[in-house]
């Protein structure tokens, strides 16, 4: 059922280079046809700017964006394609269904705007409502729908517009914890197929590790307006090179410069560990370790093949049998460093926020691998 | 959107201030103000000669004035919508240097004494006026015609529509418009299928306000259009004229305007009450 301008469904391939000076954004990104890319990053890292650059709601200061070989933006040649002719649909946190239209009229809005006759547009709308299991809500106004129902219809509306590229901006963030899994499953179905007619190119902004792992082929991590990581979801999360990816993967990370048996952080702190063969002395690298490998002491325990870190406790959080100890931010770290210790140990040590303690990590528990300079720059 | 919170508010009003969270003394000046508004209307009602009422309001000059008022106000309201809606859209959505100045200028007829507005219009469209001279050459004479009445009413009523609609547009925000654009709707489609339906309550209440202002227009009309029976003598002018000779007729006609005004208020509060004003 073709509802939009003629193009190969799901074959959108995106190439983007763009800078926006007043938001400190400088991005370069390629997305292959049919690929789903998760965009991770802290608030203000530039995720929303990336989406609004592609959808045409923000103009880059310099750069060029092409989709399916069509130039959307080229500042050098003054090319500017307005949002409605880009074939890029944005699905946001809020469903933003048009409140004065019924669900089916909302879904038919895209096809109607592309000049599809009313009858065909309604048929397409019903097809997509069925695809998201929302046929029963066809005649309802948005005010009569729950958040989860509205978001499902918003998914149908986005797909009915037959986008070459689908942009998803934390589509699950505003939903109840109880209904988010159902929508995730739906998105998986519509993004990945089968049926194959629904698989399509998409960018998915998310804060959620599960979204990245279950929906995306590839993960990019933004920090301070730059892409600092780019790779398959599992690789990025297993071997994070950026503070943000480390945090969402639940791993401790310190960045520094490679020396003989480890790295030296910006503050001169030496971290020893198992060096990845790719590490070159003098180059940037990150040291990562699991929170469960960290022991907490009140005084410096001494003894060699251990790394010692003097920290201030910022937060204590019970997690079943364990207590998660989060330190105050330290230079070169991914915010605070996290240690998981037993509840008994936490009680013996009489830990409270604000207390000075020593973290000890065996060198054999620390993995050190190369990182980009951007990672170091942004974590300092 | 506002209906849900309104219900408890109404209940609270029934219990005279309990649970309002306001200090009790606030109700004294508030009630005084209410009396100040209602009392003159009561005084007028008391003064109405009911035995002659029908005769007075159906006299030839009264009917002519009422018809002229309704006709000109309807045309003025239409003009206000045709000119004011695009103005509100530009003020609420466009970005250009001098936007603040433009917004202040639009409000000018609202704060200008109507008689000053009438003089200004006279020097624009009058025979010796800025545009009037050229129009005179074309054989068009606007001053002291029914057209002049419509122009005067439109001039004073336009800000009401622009203000009301601009407020609605700002409240509605641009998010839905952005969504519509990414779904493939061109700017005209977005305006027709999203923006206007979303602000329709504001547009309606703005139109009703503009109609009410046009209906009550006096100073600018008298200055710019004069007072010719059946041509430019609208109901307010007729009332003012009758007051000199036949006070009873003036009161009876005033009551007609009061009834029309009350109907307008009820219509806006009832139907377009969700608007922003």
Polypeptide structure, described:
The complex is a heterodimer of chains A (380) and B (277). With 380 residues, chain A is α+β, with helices and mostly antiparallel strands. Helices cover 25% and strands 32% of the residues of chain A. In chain A, the strands form four sheets. In chain A, strands 7-8-9-3-10-11 form a six-stranded mixed β-sheet, with helices on both faces. Chain B has 277 residues and is mostly helical. Chain B is built from 13 helices and no strands. Chain B has helices at residues 3-14, 27-47, 50-57, 60-93, 99-111, 114-125, 132-137, 146-172, 175-182, 187-216, 219-225, 235-245, 247-271. The longest helix of chain B has 34 residues, at 60-93. The A-B interface holds A 4, 55-57, 82-90, 92, 94, 96, 98-100, 109-110, 112-114, 157-158, 161 and B 175-176, 178-187, 189-190, 193-194, 197-198, 200.
Looking at CATH, which topology of chain B would you report?
A: MetI-like fold
| Average pLDDT for all residues of chain B | 87
Q: For the record, give the distance between the C-alpha atoms at the N and C termini of chain B, rounded to a whole number.
A: 14 Å
Biggest pleated-sheet summary of chain B: none
Total of DSSP H or I helical runs spanning 4+ residues of chain B: 13
For the record, the count of structural domains of chain B works out to 1
Side-by-side strand order of the widest sheet of chain A: 7-8-9-3-10-11
The CATH class label of chain B is Mainly Alpha
Mean pLDDT of chain A: 83
Broad structural category of chain A: alpha+beta
**Overall strand count of chain A:** 22
Helical proportion of chain A, percent range: 25-40%
CATH homologous superfamily (4th level) name of the largest domain in chain A? P-loop containing nucleotide triphosphate hydrolases
Proportion in β-strands of chain B: under 5%
* Poorly predicted runs of 5 or more residues of chain B: 1-17, 272-277
Q: What form of chain B results from the Cα inertia axes?
A: globular
Number of helices of chain A: 10
Query: What is the radius of gyration of chain B computed over CA atoms, rounded to a whole number of angstroms?
Result: 22 Å
Shape estimate of chain A: elongated
Annotated CATH topology of the largest domain in chain A: Rossmann fold
CATH architecture level-2 label of the largest domain in chain A? 3-Layer(aba) Sandwich
């Amino acid at each position: 059922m073709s509802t939009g301008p003629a193009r190969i469904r799901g074959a959108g391939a995106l190439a983007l280079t763009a800078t926006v000076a007043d938001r400190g954004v400088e991005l370069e990104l390629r997305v292959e046809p049919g690929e789903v890319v998760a965009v991770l990053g802290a608030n203000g890292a530039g995720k929303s700017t990336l989406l609004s650059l592609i959808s045409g709601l923000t103009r880059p200061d310099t750069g060029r964006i092409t989709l399916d070989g069509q130039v959307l933006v080229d500042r050098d040649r003054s090319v500017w394609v307005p949002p409605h002719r880009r074939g890029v649909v944005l699905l946001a946190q809020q469903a933003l269904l048009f409140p004065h239209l019924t669900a089916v009229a909302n879904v038919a809005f895209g096809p109607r705007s592309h000049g599809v006759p009313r009858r065909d547009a309604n048929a397409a709308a019903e097809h997509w409502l069925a695809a998201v299991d929302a046929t029963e809500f066809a005649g309802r106004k948005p005010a009569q729908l729950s958040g989860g129902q509205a978001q499902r219809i918003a998914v149908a509306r986005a797909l009915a517009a037959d986008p070459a590229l689908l942009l998803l901006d934390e589509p699950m963030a505003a939903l109840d914890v109880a209904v988010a899994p159902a929508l995730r499953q739906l998105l998986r179905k519509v993004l990945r197929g089968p049926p194959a007619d629904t698989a399509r190119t998409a960018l998915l902004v998310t804060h959620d590790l599960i979204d990245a792992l279950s929906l995306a082929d590839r993960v990019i991590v933004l920090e301070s307006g730059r892409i600092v990581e780019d790779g398959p979801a599992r690789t990025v999360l297993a071997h994070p090179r950026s503070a943000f990816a480390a945090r969402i993967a639940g791993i401790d990370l310190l960045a520094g410069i490679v020396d003989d048996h480890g790295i030296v952080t910006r503050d001169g702190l030496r971290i020893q560990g198992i060096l990845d063969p790719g590490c070159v002395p003098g180059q940037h690298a990150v040291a990562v370790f699991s929170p469960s490998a960290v022991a907490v002491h009140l005084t410096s325990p001494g003894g060699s093949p251990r790394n010692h870190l003097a920290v201030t406790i910022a937060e204590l959080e019970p997690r079943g049998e364990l207590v998660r100890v989060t330190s105050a931010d330290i230079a070169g770290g991914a915010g605070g460093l996290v240690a998981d210790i037993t509840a008994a140990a936490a009680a013996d040590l009489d830990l409270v926020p604000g207390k000075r303690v020593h973290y000890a990590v065996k060198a054999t528990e620390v993995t050190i691998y190369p990182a980009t300079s951007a990672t170091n720059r942004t974590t300092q | 959107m506002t209906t849900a919170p309104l219900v408890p508010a109404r209940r609270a009003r029934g219990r005279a201030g309990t649970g309002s969270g306001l200090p009790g003394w606030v109700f004294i000046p508030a009630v005084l103000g209410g009396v100040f508004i209602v009392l003159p209307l009561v005084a007028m009602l008391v003064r109405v000669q009911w035995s002659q009422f029908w005769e007075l309001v159906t006299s030839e000059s009264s009917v002519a004035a009422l018809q002229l008022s309704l006709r000109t106000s309807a045309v003025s309201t239409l003009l206000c919508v045709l000119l004011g809606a695009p103005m509100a859209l530009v003020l609420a959505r466009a970005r250009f240097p001098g936007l603040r100045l433009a917004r202040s200028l639009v409000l000018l007829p609202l704060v200008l004494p109507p008689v000053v507005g009438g003089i200004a219009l006279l020097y624009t469209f009058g025979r010796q006026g800025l545009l009037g001279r050229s129009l005179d050459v074309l054989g068009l004479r606007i001053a002291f015609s029914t057209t002049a009445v419509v122009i005067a009413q439109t001039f004073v009523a336009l800000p009401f529509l622009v203000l009301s609609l601009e407020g609605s547009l700002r409240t509605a925000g641009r998010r839905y418009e952005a969504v519509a654009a990414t779904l493939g709707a061109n700017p005209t489609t977005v305006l027709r299928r999203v923006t206007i339906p979303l602000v329709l309550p504001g547009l309606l209440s703005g139109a009703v306000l503009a109609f009410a202002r046009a209906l009550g227009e006096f100073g600018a009309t008298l200055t710019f259009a004069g007072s010719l029976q059946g041509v430019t003598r609208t109901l307010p002018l007729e009332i003012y004229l009758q007051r000199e000779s036949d006070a009873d007729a003036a009161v009876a006609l005033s009551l007609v305007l009061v009834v029309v005004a009350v109907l307008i208020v009820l219509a806006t509060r009832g139907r377009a009450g969700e608007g922003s004003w």
